[in-house]
Specification:
Elements (H helix, E strand, L loop, with lengths): L1 E4 L5 H12 L7 H9 L3 E8 L2 E11 L11 E9 L8 H15 L5 E3 L6 H9 L16
Parallel strand pairs: 4-5
Antiparallel strand pairs: 1-2, 2-3, 3-4
């Protein structure tokens, strides 16, 4: 397995992988990934097994308040996904390490993430990866 930082040329591939994770149309994500891969405020990483992309991670700098953190900016894991047949083999851990290394290289001393309150698989992965749960919230909205 090999991990490498994505470039704008990888935008469609990133969009396809993200589409698989978030159940979104990749066509709507390609421009967003093109912008992210050009930004000094974000990084995307791809995991490869030979010529097949088997996972990706997206991280960014967050300058606003990040729950449980004391500094700014904070490196933030926006998304991570590994293809079904490659899970539980260290791919996600390697992608996370690349994101953490990138955040460190920008001067960050803290790294954070989040997941949906009912996503128990993601919660378990985060805890196993060394994250500490710092809060749980439920958001509310109504139309005016």
């Amino acid at each position: 397995m090999k991990i490498r930082k994505a470039t704008p040329a990888d935008s469609l591939l990133l969009a396809q992988l993200a589409g698989a994770m978030w159940a979104h149309d990749p066509a709507g994500l390609e421009a967003e990934f093109a912008e992210l891969t050009r930004s000094a405020e974000a990084a995307c990483f791809l995991a490869w097994e030979q010529a097949e992309a088997i996972g990706f991670a997206q991280c960014q700098l967050r300058h606003d308040y990040v729950e449980g953190c004391d500094t700014s900016p904070v490196g933030f894991l926006e998304g991570i996904w590994v293809a079904e047949g490659h899970r539980r083999s260290g791919v996600a851990r390697a992608l996370l390490q690349s994101c953490e290394d990138w955040a460190r290289s920008t001067g960050c001393t803290e790294f954070a993430s989040d997941c949906e309150i009912d996503n128990l698989g993601s919660l378990a992965w985060h805890l196993k990866a060394g994250f500490e749960e710092v809060n749980r919230t439920i958001w509310f909205a109504k139309k005016l």
